[in-house]
Design brief:
The chain is α+β, with helices and mostly antiparallel strands. The protein contains ten helices and nine strands. Helix 6 packs across helix 8.
């Protein structure tokens, strides 16, 4: 058995709600095994009344969920559109180096595998072009990055309201902090309460509006930190 979270749009004081769901785990690294786990998680969640759900990853059975994976989602920048994964990895600043902005030019898989993000010591902060982001609140930079990338896709935003909640089968809350499924639930709440435009005005506005939803666990050192789930 395994546990994975389902993320839901929630109220104004707490924009994201999380429920852990138990389901039977299918071991193995093959894509078919991971898709079986998505189905098992969604079936278990449906028995709790959590349906329909959208898996946000390359393992999703739905094209929308695959499109919203950090590998596939692009963010507009001064150097053109870049992979969300590359934007995240290339913005990391470590005790012994970074940000390694050449990572911005890589695709998602290349960015994830760059050895420097594993060997440069403790994570200190993020620097995305001229904007520096602190490690606290813990998920602020990733949430902002994901929501900023997705905001221009109005058709996708409308379709997110068709789902009760969101999952990411690769996300293990015991090992990782940031989660694309959680960011989708946060985005739906910001839209629901008319807060999205205000939240994206500035870093300060984003943090002020979403800080109560940042995870409470300690930020892991880079040696402990996992890459973005996909």
């Amino acid at each position: 058995m395994a546990k994975r979270p389902v993320f839901f749009s929630n109220g104004r004081e707490r924009l994201v709600k999380e429920e852990l769901v138990d389901f039977r785990w299918n071991p193995g690294f093959a894509p078919i095994q991971k898709k079986k786990n998505v189905s098992a998680l969604h079936e278990a969640a449906e028995k709790k009344g959590f349906s329909p759900l959208l898996e946000i990853s390359t393992k999703s059975e739905e094209t929308l969920g695959q499109r919203l994976s950090a590998f596939n989602l692009k963010i507009a920048t001064d150097i053109g559109e870049i992979s969300l994964e590359a934007a995240y990895q290339g913005s990391k600043v470590f005790a012994s180096g970074g940000p390694y902005t050449d990572i911005y030019r890589k695709d998602g898989r290349g960015a994830k595998k760059d050895i420097r993000v594993r060997t440069s010591g403790e994570l200190v902060c993020f620097k995305f072009f001229e904007d520096e982001w602190p490690l606290e609140p813990k998920t602020a930079f990733y949430d902002w990055l994901y929501i900023t990338a997705l905001e221009p896709y109005q058709e996708f935003l409308r379709r997110l309201f068709d789902y009760k909640g969101f999952t990411d089968i690769e996300f293990n809350p015991g090992k990782s902090i940031n989660c694309q499924a959680r960011a989708c639930a946060l985005l739906v709440s910001l839209l629901k309460f008319g807060l999205l435009n205000e939240a994206l005005l500035s870093q300060r506005d984003f943090i002020d509006i979403t800080s109560s939803d940042s995870v409470e666990k300690n930020h892991p050192t880079e040696s402990q930190q996992r890459n973005l789930p996909l």
